[in-house]
Write a structure and sequence with these properties.
The protein has one domain (2-197): Alpha-Beta Complex (Maf protein). The chain contains 5 helices and 6 strands. The chain has helices at 10-22, 48-60, 99-109, 176-182, 184-197; strands at residues 2-5, 28-30, 67-78, 119-129, 135-146, 162-164. A 6-stranded mixed beta sheet has the order 2-1-3-4-5-6.
């Protein structure tokens, strides 16, 4: 099976490749570079599933006859912000915002919110499209809270300010293996792997 990852985000590529390798499936994993790059996709859907499917379909359309397309759409949903930044997580502080810009905006938005009311969850929706057009979506979530300052050097995105339930360390302070074991992407990937094994 040849699986193409519908993302240009190298952090996501590394996480997804590591998780697929750990599952020991007979899969060749490729980036879109093999087929000339990821097509331009406007992520204008109002759900993670909608955006993930849009990206997977766009890549599937240019793949060889045996190519499967896998897309991830994920983000952070903060209870006190009505679920924001949600599908806008990657561009919360603007279209060309850095991870640091997004964290700054998030912490500013929560500056008046006490820590006990800073519940949040990371959501991940993985969409896979088969060479025949069959589509599946697998969802994962990790619940926790947002802290008031960055901690840790690992991970990416909002990891330095997110502490998962039952832990005292941020995602950025956990090892990649620990994070994969409890993360939203790890949960969604577990469901995908079970489906692929069937």
């Amino acid at each position: 099976m040849r699986l193409f990852l519908a993302t240009g985000n190298l952090h996501k590529v590394e996480e997804l490749q590591a998780m697929l390798a750990a599952a020991k499936l007979d899969i060749e994993v490729h980036t879109p570079a093999v087929v000339g790059g990821m097509p331009e996709v406007v992520e204008d859907q109002d759900s993670f599933s909608g955006n993930a499917l849009k990206k997977a379909r766009a890549l599937s359309a240019i793949l060889p006859d045996d190519g499967w397309a896998l897309a991830d759409d994920s983000g952070l949903c903060v209870d006190a912000l009505g679920g924001a930044p949600g599908v806008y997580s990657a561009r919360y502080a603007g279209e060309s915002a850095s991870d640091s810009d997004n964290i700054d905006k998030l912490l500013a938005a929560l500056s008046e919110v006490v820590e006990s009311d800073r519940g949040a969850s990371f959501q991940c929706h993985l969409a896979i499209v088969s060479p025949h057009g069959e589509e599946q979506v697998f969802k994962g979530a990790c619940h926790g809270r947002i802290i008031g300052e960055r901690r840790g050097e690992g991970g990416f995105g909002y990891d330095p300010v997110f502490i998962p339930n039952g832990f005292e360390l941020s995602f950025a302070e956990l090892s990649s293996e620990e994070k994969a074991g409890l993360s939203h992407r790890g949960e969604a990937m577990g469901k995908l792997v079970s489906w692929l094994k069937r």
